[in-house]
Amino acid sequence: MTQTAEVVIVGAGIMGVSTAYHLARLGAGRVIVLERDTVCSGSTALASGGIRHQYANRLGIELTTHSIVTYERFEAEFGVDPNFRQHGYLILIAAEDELAVARRSVALQRELGVNVELLDAAATRELCPYLNTDDLLGATYTPRDGYADPYLCATGIAARARELGVVIHQQHEVTAFLRDGDRVRGVVTQHGAFEAGAIVIATGAWSGVVGTLAGVDIPVRPHRRHKFMTAPFPADRIPAATPFVIDPHQNFSLRREGPGLLLGHGRRDEPDGFGTEIDRSLEPRVVERAIHRAPALAEAKLMRSYAGLYEMTPDQTGIVSAVPGVAGLYVIAGFSGHGFMHGPIAGQLMAETLVHGRAVTMDASPLDLARFARGETHVEPLTFV
Ligand SMILES: Cc1cc2nc3c(=O)[nH]c(=O)nc-3n(C[C@H](O)[C@H](O)[C@H](O)COP(=O)(O)OP(=O)(O)OC[C@H]3O[C@@H](n4cnc5c(N)ncnc54)[C@H](O)[C@@H]3O)c2cc1C
């Protein structure tokens, strides 16, 4: 049995549901989302929910400027409290080269209207007295940033998209694409075929694999990323309203998660792969980094660990684009560990591209897939893998 639609979206993470929602708002006709598992079951479900303006390139800053407004007004638009805790983002600086990047990035962020401060070590300690700043040159701090709950957000957007007429089929894995020469006509699932004028690949870390099914090269590779939760830890030692702290030099992060803390650590030389089993050898390393940076954590207990997948592109920047040479095929993927925060604007730009032939809310040309073939890539250095 074949079903038809104006647009079929493959994948129901933040990118797929955001695209579907914006298509429905723009009156794009019948929109079907096909998800192999359930809504928000991929990387979005495991994201730390961080939303920050702190990028070195203009694009990342502008994407956040557009997206953060959605998270700030989320409850009014979607009827769900996204638990957006605007406790700020603090990126630590431990080396001269990091300070040079910070100076340039802060200047650009300010030029684009971001409230950002470059703190010295003493001011960093004043802001977060629990941090050991002995080995730091300072930090950059953006008070408007913070973190929201990715599951509440993605499922909230999906629910509103459904209310607007979008059909979401779960347990529908796309296993093949239907092509007529240079045009893609539809996709195949175990429940039958779905034909549409436009097919959108929104399959996160799996987008390279799904691209291969369609006969196209989408340069997205999976990169395992670990998180560690502590048992409840007293708020008089590390306050509940502490910023999301990133320590790039140590490849370490921390923020509050309810009564405990959420810690991040990984290996920069982690090989590509889809495995999400936990690398136990990271646990002593994360404990060591945690105690070094926040000595009070010597009394904390690690409670559990998990790993998910970042969806990395060669320039650590996302793709929102038509696929050159294949009419009717589009891709929204590869946000390289920043996709939760950029999901709202990325979905809007994808929907505008489908409906109007080009993005109108902001210039989406730096997100073009063809940039890789042209060799016009600008790596975003403030990506923490
Ligand atoms: C540990 C961790 C922490 C992170 N922290 C942050 C953060 O603080 N801030 C931030 O902005 N980002 C963060 N990220 C990154 C963020 O999670 C991703 O950038 C974002 O969720 C990508 O969304 P997506 O919709 O592209 O992918 P996904 O959420 O992975 O959705 C893709 C969907 O496609 C489905 N799919 C795959 N293949 C098929 C198929 N053949 N047929 C049908 N469906 C298919 C999958 O089941 C999945 O549901 C983090 C990621 C991880 C792993």
Walkthrough of the structure:
The protein has 385 residues and is α/β, with parallel strands linked by helices. The protein has three domains: 2-47 and 151-220 and 315-374, FAD/NAD(P)-binding domain, CATH 3.50.50.60; 89-143, no CATH class; 223-310, 2-Layer Sandwich (D-Amino Acid Oxidase, Chain A, domain 2), CATH 3.30.9.10. The chain contains eleven helices and 18 strands. It has helices spanning 14-25, 43-46, 58-72, 74-78, 96-111, 121-127, 150-163, 207-214, 282-293, 339-356, 370-374, and strands spanning 2-10, 31-34, 50-51, 89-93, 117-120, 138-142, 146-147, 167-169, 176-180, 183-189, 192-201, 221-230, 244-247, 252-257, 260-265, 302-312, 319-322, 329-333. The strands form three sheets. Strands 1, 2, 8, 9, 10, 11, 17 and 18 form an eight-stranded mixed sheet that branches. Strand 9 (176-180) and strand 10 form a beta hairpin. Helix 3 (58-72) packs across helix 10. The longest helix has 18 residues, at 339-356. The radius of gyration is 21 Å and the shape is globular. The mean pLDDT is 97. Bound molecules: flavin-adenine dinucleotide.
Give a brief description.
With 385 residues, this protein is an alpha/beta fold. The protein has helices at residues 14-25, 43-46, 58-72, 74-78, 96-111, 121-127, 150-163, 207-214, 282-293, 339-356, 370-374, and strands spanning 2-10, 31-34, 50-51, 89-93, 117-120, 138-142, 146-147, 167-169, 176-180, 183-189, 192-201, 221-230, 244-247, 252-257, 260-265, 302-312, 319-322, 329-333. It contains 11 helices and 18 strands.
How many structural domains?
3
Binned strand content: 25-35%
- List ligands, each type once: flavin-adenine dinucleotide
Q: What share of the residues lie within helices?
A: 25-40%
| CATH superfamily (homologous) name of the largest domain | FAD/NAD(P)-binding domain
Q: Which class do the helix and strand fractions yield? A: alpha/beta
Please outline the major beta sheet.
Answer: 8 strands, mixed
Mean pLDDT: 97
The beta-strand count equals 18
Low-confidence stretches: none
Task: State Rg.
Answer: 21 Å
How many angstroms does the end-to-end distance come to?
43 Å
**What CATH first level of the largest domain would be assigned?**
Alpha Beta
Q: What is the oligomeric state here? A: single chain
The second-level CATH architecture of the largest domain is 3-Layer(bba) Sandwich
**Count of helical segments?**
11
One letter per element, helices H and strands E, the order comes to EHEHEHHEHEHEEHEEEEHEEEEHEEEHH
Shape: globular
The CATH topology of the largest domain corresponds to FAD/NAD(P)-binding domain
